[in-house]
Amino acid sequence: MVLLALSSTPVGADIQRLPVPRTVDGLTRMLHPKEVAEIKDLDVTARPRAFARVWTRKEAYLKGLGTGVAGNLSHDYLGTEAHRAQAPDGWSIRDVTAPDGFAAAVAVRSSTDADRPACDFRRRRLQPPHPTA
Question: Mean pLDDT lowest for which of 9-18, 22-31, 37-46, 117-126?
Fold first, then answer.
């Protein structure tokens, strides 16, 4: 899977396969304390989707900042609820519809809070190249 985001302002995008429970258990502690609590309050079967949702938001945002996952995953609260990302000031963070078994998000920086960009999401299925004759 590939997710591309293009913008005249800083932008980040991420798509991830839903993790196995062992991965959720091992990495959840790296998130913001409120996100950790939200995930722990969920039924075990709902945790991978919630974790993937917040993880892709974090990665998209940190890529937009230019730090990537080397940035502090616990610093900003982005939330785990579906379609309810909490964006830091000056940012717009949106979940992107992804194929079953995946989660995806895009983060776009705007110059001012009142000037948050409208995001235009378009999905395209890339076809493998045709062999030449």
Answer: 117-126
Fold of 11-115: Ribosomal Protein L22; Chain A (3.90.470)
Domain ranges of the chain: 11-115
Residue that is written with structure tokens 């890339």 in the block: 126
Distance between CA 124 and CA 133 in Å, rounded? 26
Q: Report the pLDDT averaged over residues 8-22.
A: 94
Q: How far apart are CA 116 and CA 120, in angstroms?
A: 13
Span 49-65, pLDDT tens digits: 999 999 999 999 999 99
> Regarding beta strands 102-109 and 91-96, do their DSSP bridges make them parallel or antiparallel, or are they unpaired?
antiparallel
pTM: 0.83
| Element at 129 (helix H, strand E) | none
* Cβ–Cβ under 8 Å, residues 108 and 91: yes
* Phi then psi dihedrals of residue 25, to 5 deg: -60, -40
Mean pLDDT of the chain, nearest integer = 87
Question: Would you state the torsion angle of the CA atoms of residues 36, 40, 41, 44, taken in this order, to the nearest 10 degrees?
Answer: 140
